[in-house]
């Protein structure tokens, strides 16, 4: 007898282009716990400016399901496919989703002021909403920046953070 894994995990799904919000709402109506990372940005038109919520990862949505809800999700409007690695549906650790939620709930990003770090160096965030998370220093543009990688997605978040909030990982 084949036992189905009943462990609930966060799975990234790929959606139709520009259908993330509609797919999110549809899955929520079906009772599926979803997370759509959004951020606020100021849009400018010829006649006005307005704050709008944009999707952080274009065409991606996260669903919190066990394997028994897999078919319900994949058969829903807007869902193109689950993201797979090595032939299995990839999942995101709960901690990474919580860190992303906490980060996006913040209003202001502190400025980074490193002097003795090189691009590519690994650091650990030791305080703030992203405490405990590992990151990588990416560039020395006007301000140094850290990249937070969500491994199963193959995508990264670029952000500024205070030097006091990180330590070098050796």
From TrEMBL:
Keyword Transcription regulation: yes
Keyword Transcription regulation: yes
Entry keywords, A to Z: Transcription, Transcription antitermination, Transcription regulation
GO annotation, biological process: DNA-templated transcription elongation; transcription antitermination
Protein name, entry field: Antitermination protein NusG
CDD domains in UniProt: NGN_SP_UpxY
Short name of one Pfam family: NusG
Coiled coil: none
Database matches in NCBIfam families: antiterm_UpxY
Organism from which the protein derives: Pedobacter psychrophilus
InterPro entries for the chain: NGN-like_dom (IPR006645), NGN_dom_sf (IPR036735), NusG-like (IPR043425)
